[in-house]
Design brief:
There is one protein chain. By secondary structure, this protein is α/β, with parallel strands linked by helices. The protein is 38% helix and 18% strand. The protein has a 5-stranded parallel beta sheet with strand order 2-1-3-4-5, sandwiched between helices. α4 links the parallel β3 and β4. α2 runs parallel beside α5 and α3 runs parallel beside α4. The structure holds ligand CA2. Ligand CA2 binds next to loops.
Amino acid sequence: MHSRTIHILNGPNLNLLGKREPEIYGRDTLEDVARTCAALAVELGLETALYQSNHEGEIVEMIHRAREAAAGIIINPAAYTHTSVAILDALNAFEGPVLEVHISNVHKRESFRHHSYVSLRAEGVIAGFGVQGYELALRRMAVLLG
Ligand code: CA2
């Protein structure tokens, strides 16, 4: 296990970040998030690797790989947040800290976005801070890892 590596996992449609619906999700792309987090990680004595998939099973496999390769997981499961027992089960088999990030304030949106399976596993949840939520989660991860 890589004791200072954090995997930042992103679910379906987040590849469109910065390219569609800027009024909800902002103008930064996922590549911008990857770059900003990698720079912050250096300051915090961490390393980051960011991944995205539109497929539930691939996200499950990303979490399995993190078991060997990451000390912690920051995850925005996107729509699978609200539906996926498989992602929850995979996260339950991961031993390190898990932080859940949502770019938008899910509690200000439709009621089906108010429930998260992943929150049953996550040490903490950030919602509604835009893409800055990923940086805040990374700072929290540095504290949790000591
Ligand atoms: O606010 C979040 O980060 C969400 O996880 C985003 C998901 C949504 O299903 C969750 O309820 C909350 C949707 C991700 C879609 O991402 C897009 C980004 C730009 C343009 C279109 C979609």
